[in-house]
TrEMBL record:
InterPro entries: PB1-like_dom_pln
Domain PB1-like: 27-86
Organism: Lactuca saligna
Name of the protein in its database record: PB1-like domain-containing protein
Tree of life domain: Eukaryota
Organism placement in taxonomy: Eukaryota, Viridiplantae, Streptophyta, Embryophyta, Tracheophyta
Length: 99
């Protein structure tokens, strides 16, 4: 069965990952924050941005190049400087790392 490549979910569109991803263990969703900024340490937070969900991402095909393609779809105009970060959740806090 061919699965469509990733797509950005329209806002307020219902989505049930248990149903959609059933039988497709390599697919996942990215919660993507963009257009905002991080506050300074020690109270690091992301503010003034937009949140979008990118569904049907295949872990076997995903790379930073795919993330670049997703970001191009948001059409920020002049190629912006983009910094990618990811979260690591630990028992006592959340850590933010540059990618």
């Amino acid at each position: 069965m061919n699965i469509t490549m990733w797509h950005v979910r329209l806002l307020n569109t219902p989505f049930n990952p248990k149903v959609v991803y059933d039988g497709h263990p390599t697919l996942f969703t990215i919660k993507l924050y963009h257009g905002g900024e991080f506050t300074k340490y020690p109270d690091v937070r992301y503010i003034d941005g937009t949140v979008n969900y990118v569904d049907m991402v295949d872990i076997d095909e995903f790379s930073v190049h795919e993330l670049d393609a997703i970001m191009k779809g948001f059409r920020y105009g002049v190629p912006p400087v983009i910094y990618y970060h990811f979260l690591v959740l630990v028992e006592t806090s959340t850590l933010v790392f540059a990618l």
